[in-house]
Amino acid sequence: MSIKNKLQHLITNHAGLLVVIYAVVIRFIFVVLYNTVTLFPDSEDYINLSKTVFDLTGYDGKRTPGLPVIINLLGYNLTWVVGFQLILGVMTTYFTYSITSVLSKDKAIGFWTAIIFTSFANVVLFDFAILTETLTTFLLIFSIWLIVYCRLFESKTKWYFYFLLSLILTWLYLTRPFFIYVPVGFAMFFIVASFKINLKSVILKSTIVLSLPLLTYYMWNNHNKKTIGHFTNTTYFGINLTQTATPFFELAKDEHAQIRDIIVRHRDSILIHNPKLEAMSVWDAQIELLQVTNLSQKDLYFKLGDISKQLIKDNPLLYLKQAGKSWLLFWGNQSSFYWNIEKINNVYFKQGTLIVWIYIQRYALIIFNVLFLIFAFKKIILFLKNKMRTYDPDLFIVCIIVSGSLAQALIAYGNNSRFCFPFFPLIVYFVINNIWSYKDVITSKK
User: Which among 164, 267, 173 has a CA at the least distance from the CA of 220?
Assistant: First the structure.
């Protein structure tokens, strides 16, 4: 038996086990040669909230409690948090394999999809970072796996699976508030897809899925209303809107001249030295704004949000232009490499990882994104040509990813590669599955 045939035999009979072993081995290599808890400015917010997450004393409204609760339960031991995230990374890899195998009905496609996904260095490195990416990706992929594996788009499925999905999506919201749209998207898709089958059952099950995330959304926002004075997920919403409005911030009204002029001055300075960082001008101007306005940080953020909302309302075309740029950056950003290079002692590991990322993987990531958009466009066109009759999980995945990219572009400038990351396993699946289908067509013609 040739090596190729042996590999095919192993994949056919032990694909899931091989995927798990590979995911563990590649992470073990990073544990041995990297072995660092990676901290970033955002990490401090999560760590600080973890210390008061169960009583919320001194809560500043910057973050939601999804990750901080885990940090708290693990005794604030960041090494344990990384260990926990490494386990989640392995589980995400397995769920990616399982989703692909079920939808493609081919374990080989599932195997290679999972292997390719978990081989990306940035995927493994996020497991070492005290950021929400690993947890968010796990929860999103877990929810998709539950939908696919337990056939949640079939009206005969038991109600408790929908309750479990509701729990998962609630924690997803508490980890990354942006994803509150996922349970809404599921309910809408389920109702439309099953409208003529058993509407009463579908509405009941959709309500089960929606109930916990929306109730949690209301309770968390209401808590913020009582503690920081605004019904909002986090205080960062205002400053995120300002990033989107920065290119036309000079159009702000004279009543906001003090804030307007400071941001415009910082923006123009950044445009001279590094135009790519234009949207970050407000962060650069933050210290001066706090000093000049005498506002607290949270009050400044809300003030910026109010100014930006008015700017967007008064200049819809400029806003849409900026949102369009943001949407393109959502798919085309290559900076999702989060590690602490100074902590790496092994020169060969450091150089090897950099070479693989710089010359191969960062371009492969963009290629996957571009191919996804092409195949997604094809999927939507075929759906429309078929008079919108085929509501399958692939269409749902396309809808979730594309609508997520559009929503992100509308509320925050998309030059942060972390925005797209949680969708990456699904993007890899959809691209590999479509490429494989073309391979089968070509093979059959021969």
Answer: 173
Burial of 389 (0-12, 13-18, 19+ CB in 10 A): exposed
Segment-wise mean pLDDT, segments of 10 residues, the chain, 446 residues: 75 90 98 94 94 84 94 97 98 99 96 98 96 98 98 92 98 97 97 86 96 97 90 90 93 94 94 87 92 92 95 95 92 78 89 94 95 97 90 96 94 78 97 87 56
Q: Are 401 and 408 in contact (CB under 8 A)?
A: no
d(CA 250, CA 263): 8
224 backbone dihedrals φ, ψ, rounded to 5° = -65, -35
Q: Cα separation of 144 and 429, whole Å?
A: 12
Please give the pLDDT value at position 270: 92
Task: DSSP for 305-329, please give it.
Answer: HHHHHHHHHH-HHHHHHHHHHHHHH
Q: Which two tokens stand for residue 244?
A: 């989107």
Q: How far is Cα 135 from Cα 133, in angstroms, rounded to an integer?
A: 6
- pLDDT tens-digit series, residues 106-152: 999 999 999 999 999 999 999 999 999 999 999 999 999 999 999 99
The mean predicted confidence, pLDDT, of the chain is 92
* Separation of alpha carbons 271 and 275, rounded Å: 4
Q: How many CA atoms lie within 13 Å of 439's alpha carbon, on the beta-carbon side?
A: 7
C-alpha 149/C-alpha 144 separation (Å) is: 8
C-alpha–C-alpha distance, residues 277 and 267, integer Å:
9
Token pair in block for residue 286: 């933050």
Full-model pTM: 0.95
DSSP designation for 275: G
Q: Which DSSP symbol is given to 252?
A: S
Q: Kindly list the distances between the CA atom of residue 142 and the CA atoms of 88, 216, 219, 225, 365, in Å, as whole numbers in the listed order.
A: 10, 19, 24, 31, 22
**Residues in CB range of 214: below 8 A, 6 or more apart:** 180, 183
Burial letters for 391-407: b for 16+ Cβ neighbours within 10 Å, e otherwise? bebbbbbbbbbbebbee
